[in-house]
Amino acid sequence: MLHHLIRHAAQNGFGEHGFPESGFAPGPLPAPSRRGFLKAIGVGAGALVIGAHLPMPALAAEAAPKIVGPADPRPHAFIIVAPDNTVTVLAKHLDKGQGIVTGLATIAAEELDADWSQVRGAFAPANQKLYANHMFGVQGTGGSTAVANSWDELRMAGAAARAMLVAAAAARWNVPAGEVTVSKGVVRHAASNRSATFGELAEEAAKLPVPQQVKLKDRKDYVLIGNPDLHRLDHISKTNGTAIFAMDIRRPGQVTAVLARSPRFGGTVKSVDDAAARKVPGVIDVISLPVGVAVIAKNTWAAIKGREALTVTWDDAKAETRGTDAMLADYRKAAEKPGAVAANKGDAEKAIADAKAKGGHVVEGEFVFPYLAHAPMEPLNAVVALNPEGGCTIWAGSQFQTVEQMVAAHILGCKPEQVKIETQWAGGSFGRRATPSADYIAEAVMIAKAYPKAPVHLVWTREDDIKGGRYRPLVLHKITAAVDAKGDLVGWKQRIVGQSFMTGTPFEAVMVKDGVDATMVEGASDMAYPVANLAVDAHTVASPVTTLWWRSVGHTHTAYAKEVMIDRLAKAAGKDPVAFRMEMLKDHPRLAGVLKLAAEKAGWGQPLPQGKGRGVAVHESFNTYVAHVADVSVDAKGQIKVDRVVVAVDCGEVVNPDIVKAQMEGGAGWGIGHALRDEITMTDGKVDQSNFDGYLPMRMSDMPAVEVHIVPSHERPTGAGEPGVPTVAPAVANAVFSVTGQPLQTLPFSRGGIVS
Amino acid sequence: MVRINVNGEERQVDVPEDMPLLWVLRDELNMTGTKFGCGIAQCGACTVHVDGTPTRACQTPVSMLTPDSKVTTIEGVKGKAAQAVQAAWQKLDVVQCGYCQSGQIMSAIALLTDNQNPTDEDIDAAMDGNVCRCATYVRIRAAIKDAAQTMRA
């Protein structure tokens, strides 16, 4: 239903209502960059717009600095230089831990020549016109695009603001601007030995016109970009308890709501007995909504107790009633028949048959990937207050601001720009806070509409989160591949079965082509290994179980299946896993580069003691190149432990090396943690897990040592949030394979009894 | 009325006796540094000290506290171990999303108060109850060792 809502809101709301100029931007503004989103909802023609999932050429085209050119540096939209000498850089993106507030501030501060100690970060308001992600066309964060799409505009904004400060100083001192220099936040005229701080010049600079041309720094002059010693802007507030997340918002008179949702996906409310719930001390109201039954209370505990006292009967007529075993059996049945074609070159069938007949080797693999929850540490929540003048204000870890504005506007019957969003630090997301339906935000707005007396804080409990869907889909891969008698990869057939989370959303028109959801086959249909005979097809299966992108999206399963198969093929060919890959990556220098670096740093080829294994994997995702080498121990009982991971990453020009390093460390933990033990299963349509006692997160004692090596690069910066995930689990699997000879093709590993 | 001592201050709250300390802190006293992560003592985001012992506030009904119990939260934590731990966390930029870090820090302070030379096994044992979905574990371990060194110096 919400999918329908947003489509409706997008088609009707988006086109009719203009987006007023923001008070942040007094200068000339570019045309609204909604072209992309209009395309996404099927209007007009042009490039792809969803950067998270774009094939390379379209991404490169969108990434070109054409929306914000030198003629439009608009510093005020991004940079505030205050009389107190602080420089605040507004982040149009959500920081959910990936460090983007720091990253964006670094880019702007570099061109501004600010001193890092005076730099602050703040979240920009929701304003699609000013703050669209240039790879999406709407304001939103995802697909490891934040630095890549901000790189040009923030450098130009910083340079423009610097030029205005220089001009103000030149005017004040009556000297040529060309003689004025800036360093570490101080503006100087050496000849007359005069200087001023940014703060002292701010007011005068603000009265000057925004320059229409700016000159960007030569990278050799960078002081902040690439500096490994910069601290994150949130490193103090997040260590003394003062950082405010949406969960911590307390508005005057605020009430707390929890929502009873159907235990089966697709179920609806049949009847409610709320008599007992209303008697729970602190419960204020119980409201039935299309999305469930809301219990509104004075505080969170009362709301939770009130919900426990509810008796709701659910109508399962349209609900998923299969368990995951039955679903998987259906997937296997679907996989018996050809799917929609995602890649087809040469003749894979024939190449494989020929290899078999002529002394080559054929390897077959079936891979099963479970549903996975994102389970960010901060459970989903949002505060919504209706505004007296119409519309509402939302406090949330908002990741898709434009979508949330449209959905909220549709629910409230107001204009999208009447929906104000106060973006907060988010306690993780991993994709979960960005949904095409704005799911939890929509719930909160519906409750606020039904209970207009006070600001409403909708809180999901951890149980709501684990059972709440939007999972990484359950996916089945069947692969048959062959090396010929020389040991060269000659044929590859792959069939993928899973749900599409793009179908039924505004993104379907661009992301689903000829029955293939690009996010289901990315990393497979476009694999870098130059196999002459490649056939990849896909079956999209339907279920009321909701699914969503999950940190590194399709690459979470395609990279795994590919890289585990490659090791099996290398073994069949009698080749070393690194050498086998290197000989196939001759035309992919950046992939070959990270592979070589990781292998060297890990000591690839050195003999290992009994019971120790070493494995490798390499992959490109989100235009970033990553290789992992994993070292594992396998004990006498066959139990595994990951001892060490070596990562090599090439993400172009690195803005904050320490943050890239942190993302690689965290990405390794994310990838390994889920591979070890995590799965969402269902029995008769009901989720079996409910909290961290059943959905088992990685903990300290599971975490291996992680060594990160960054490839020095002058290429345009790409992303770091997701690309550190796809290759770590297959590297671990290949390390185990090197010891046991058993490929790990069913996830999580605990299913095979090798992890306690 | 329930009387509790939080960060050295006597506080009175009008709450049911079964309300967990977590919600007393967050919803009644507006001390939001202590976080809600799971509600069943599986993630450690709500870790506070009760008389110096790391305690999951989400599974501590306020009635379990005695009038003499001293509750310490991230907002009020002080002393040599606290200083060393917070400084190490900041020096190494441990945080990512930061939501679990109040709990991580409270557990780490308790560990180092008792043991200023923890082994990796000691760190595993003391910290395994604190989940970090960003997996900042590499830096948490390094920061604990860094803080331990500071304390020994």
Automatic annotation (TrEMBL), chain A:
PROSITE patterns: TAT. GO terms for molecular function: oxidoreductase activity. Signal peptide: none annotated. InterPro entries: Ald_Oxase/Xan_DH_a/b (IPR000674), AldOxase/xan_DH_MoCoBD1 (IPR008274), AldOxase/xan_DH_MoCoBD2 (IPR046867), AldOxase/xan_DH_Mopterin-bd_sf (IPR037165), N-heterocyclic_Hydroxylase (IPR052516), OxRdtase_Mopterin-bd_su_IorB (IPR012368), TAT_signal (IPR006311), TAT_signal_bac_arc (IPR019546). Pfam families: MoCoBD_1, MoCoBD_2. It comes from the Bacteria. This is Isoquinoline 1-oxidoreductase, beta subunit. Gene3D superfamilies: Aldehyde oxidase/xanthine dehydrogenase, a/b hammerhead, Aldehyde oxidase/xanthine dehydrogenase, molybdopterin binding domain. Residues 240-318 form the Aldehyde oxidase/xanthine dehydrogenase a/b hammerhead domain.
Automatic annotation (TrEMBL), chain B:
One of its GO terms (molecular function) is 2 iron, 2 sulfur cluster binding. Pfam families: Fer2 (PF00111), Fer2_2 (PF01799). Keywords: 2Fe-2S, Iron, Iron-sulfur, Metal-binding, Oxidoreductase. The keyword Zinc does not apply. Residues 1-77 form the 2Fe-2S ferredoxin-type domain. The keyword Iron-sulfur applies. This is Isoquinoline 1-oxidoreductase, alpha subunit. It comes from Azospirillum oryzae.
